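Researcher: Let's try something more involved. This one mixes different molecule types, so please make sure each is placed in the same coordinate frame as the others.
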Amino acid sequence: MDSKAPLDVIAASLRRERGRAGLSLTEVAKRAGIAKSTLSQLESGAGNPSVETLWAISVALEIQFADLLEPPRPKVQVIRANEGPAIYSERANYSATLVAASPPHARRDLYRIVVTPGPGHESRPHMPGTIEHVVLSTGRALIGPLDEPVEMYPGDYIAYPGDVPHLFKALVANTTAVLVSETS
Amino acid sequence: MDSKAPLDVIAASLRRERGRAGLSLTEVAKRAGIAKSTLSQLESGAGNPSVETLWAISVALEIQFADLLEPPRPKVQVIRANEGPAIYSERANYSATLVAASPPHARRDLYRIVVTPGPGHESRPHMPGTIEHVVLSTGRALIGPLDEPVEMYPGDYIAYPGDVPHLFKALVANTTAVLVSETS
DNA sequence: CCCATGCGTTCGATATGGCGAACATTAGAT
DNA sequence: ATCTAATGTTCGCCATATCGAACGCATGGG
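Model: All components are placed in one shared frame. Result:
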């Protein structure tokens, strides 16, 4: 469950962002071209704003529309190379450790990848709209969509659609990478 | 400008996602507990939905609320280790290459970091709500908030608030890392 | 002191978003 | 061929989100 009334989230974001901008409610309402009464109600969690209203406000506050719908903030966390907490490994010669899941319904997972030479790892398509970003840390590998993989060297970066079959095949021993799986 | 009437974006997303789910307009409306007339109007770009309505639909479609406000999709891209396109380097012994900027107003940038031993690199706070994720690729480094840095080894992962002063100090030569800067 | 100017809240009037029924359309079954 | 059961669209009514004005409360200037 993600629920958590979006109206409350919006209300909180509204106050927070307005405070951040150092603007008065009156001023924001004026800039947004809406009645300050409306804004007042929204900030107090009452009401059920229309998209137009929210849009006007987000413009007035000079923030991204979606920023009004995203909650708060996190902390500090360390995961050592060996002690993968959430392990997600597959084939014998391929291991992916989830180091940072997208909280709570964010849109990006961060994996540490370790692969040894072998048949290579083929991934079935993920969620539509997924993009994978890979930076090769050490070794050498063939990475990318099945039909057009790219030979990667340490430091190289590649991004490709994750919603089509794709490959990660180590060409030498001790091949490691960082993978960011980003959903639309 | 990012503008681009959100109503059109929503309309498009609505049709797209419903198609993806293989559901009928009637079915989605039923699940969402809204009138199908309402949904019909929204999909045709008419109307100005309230947050409650959108929320109900996003639940019915089993997608993220914000997914209704985000446009389309990307492609395949490779950046070699040397040929950093957008270079963002600072001190002599610290270089950060932006390999994947958040498009168009997404919320995460991907950097490749190369540091040599020296005084260390201190970053002033970024945007409030920023989180930085680092996976050390090679070498050894002291990373984290100024007041509690952590000694990192290859493969180690750390996340910390990016909106407070923080440090990246290489302890040995040939220290490289991948950094994901994620804004709220 | 008192009035002016800013703030954010509350309240009635009105514009409009959402609902449900009726609608046109197509597909399948009898 | 007609009848049934889906689809998505259009329309009038009602609930309500938004507006504008009035309000209470702080400051600060005359």
